[in-house]
Amino acid sequence: MEGAAVVSARRSPPVPEYNVSTSTLAFDQHFTMTAKGILLLAEIMCGMLVWILVGGTEYFHLSALCWVMFIAILCWVLTVGLFIIYLTGAHNRIPRVPWRTLSLCLNCSATALYLVTALVDALSVTQAIRGRHNYNCWAASAFFAFLTTLCYAGSSYQSYRAWKTTEEEQ
């Protein structure tokens, strides 16, 4: 009994409790080192360069470049959203969504749309005067549009392989 009294006398004062909540979404550090993560980052960076380079000019005088801006921003926003979903692991927490099929459809659609966009962008360069600001920006955006198309094509291939292995397992 005396030992119990001594232990309770030495006890430290209670620590105040704080209302600390934990997030259910986790940050996957290693995702950005995978082929899928690298391709998504490349799509985001190159796609952003496309719409920044076109958006910094007087593109609204050519309806073809309005198409380029629309597709570049649409694909960029969808890709950023998909990147965040994969980076936070939300795709693992929502198993009812067929993420591999969704990723395949998004990447294949973006590849086709970006190929048309890159061609339109490249053909629109001739509308500008060589050596001027619009010409240089449109030429650079056409280059990055083709580079973005290649990134989406690589992602489409990766998505197809992942989708095919899922189909074979079932």
From TrEMBL:
Pfam families reported for this sequence: MARVEL
Top-level lineage group: Eukaryota
Location relative to the cell: Membrane
Example GO biological process: myelination
InterPro entries: MAL, Marvel, MARVEL-CKLF_proteins
Assigned GO CC terms: membrane
Membrane-crossing segments per the record: 37-54, 66-89, 101-123, 135-155
Organism per entry: Monopterus albus (Swamp eel)
GO molecular function terms noted in the UniProt entry: structural constituent of myelin sheath
Record's bilayer topology term: Multi-pass membrane protein
Signal peptide: none
The protein's name: MARVEL domain-containing protein
Taxon lineage: Eukaryota, Metazoa, Chordata, Craniata, Vertebrata
